[in-house]
Write a structure and sequence with these properties.
Elements (H helix, E strand, L loop, with lengths): L1 E5 L5 E5 L15 H12 L9 H23 L6 H8 L3 H7 L3 H12 L8 H4 L5 H12 L7 H9 L5 H25 L6 H24 L6 H13 L9
Antiparallel strand pairs: 1-2
Helix pairs in contact: 2-3, 2-8, 7-9, 7-11, 8-10, 9-10, 10-11
């Protein structure tokens, strides 16, 4: 809705308000000029000699994502209101909605920017020819799926999996990438050519255990022995094909 009023100089000012379907779920109604002022204030250098406004833009957005990551990981997506995210980030709620119009946009940004689909690990850094077991163990350590730097993976992908389709889709893509990476490690480490089906079953099994281990770390549960699992997978790959079933 647009309303016009006059200021002290007789010029018309316009107030722009947006209607939202759910109370508390959308950005608060503010004057367009007020929002621009808040954004400009957030972008302004905080001290003399500070960088250009671009640095302020990145800083405010990063603080919002940092706060959302911590709160989603600690309390879950649905239980975290945007007002709390804004408060923890030290920004006005209107500024949060300037960057992320919906709370789902925050989740999507965390997934896209902090949970890359391609695991950041080079095959050559973990695979050693003739050492299948050691190569798998080094892969798990390099990925560190249950480590502190992957708390979004542990908390968001597992906790909010059922209620958010974009999380489910990302988990599927991430798991596919992990399986493909594990297959590449197995190929690079094996002294002989592996059967494609057995290789896929072995990789799928080991990735499943890595993801279980990551999830159990969040709950401080009993952790699977990835070294023992790597040894079993390696022996199965080296043995006869008859009776081989890891899936």
């Amino acid at each position: 809705m647009v309303r016009a009023r006059t200021d002290g100089t007789g010029r018309a000012r316009h107030r722009v308000r947006k209607a939202h379907t759910r109370a508390g779920d959308g950005p608060p109604a503010v004057e367009a000029s007020d929002l621009e002022a808040r954004v400009s204030e957030a972008h302004a250098p905080h001290e003399e000699g500070a960088g250009a406004t671009g640095a302020g833009v990145a800083d405010a957005r990063t603080r919002i994502l940092d706060a959302a990551e911590e709160l989603f990981a600690g309390h879950g997506f649905d239980a975290t209101p945007t007002s709390r995210i804004a408060e923890q980030a030290g920004v006005a709620k209107a500024l949060l909605f300037y960057y992320f119009p919906r709370k789902d946009d925050l989740l999507a940004a965390l997934i896209a920017e902090r949970l890359p689909e391609q695991p950041l690990c080079r095959v050559g850094s973990v695979a050693k020819r003739g050492d299948l077991t050691g190569s798998l163990v080094r892969l798990a350590r390099a990925l560190d799926l249950g480590g502190r730097r992957s708390r979004v993976l542990r908390a968001i992908l597992f906790r909010d999996l059922g209620s958010h389709p974009q999380v489910l889709a990302h988990r599927f893509r991430l798991r596919t990438a992990l399986v493909e990476l594990t297959e590449q490690v197995l190929d690079a480490a094996s002294p002989f050519t592996l059967d494609r089906l057995r290789r896929r079953q072995a990789a799928d099994t080991y990735v499943s255990l890595m993801l279980v281990e990551a999830d159990h770390r969040r709950f401080a549960g009993v952790l699977p022995d990835l070294t023992a699992a790597a040894n079993i997978v390696s022996r199965a790959l080296a043995g006869p094909a008859v009776g081989f079933g890891l899936a």
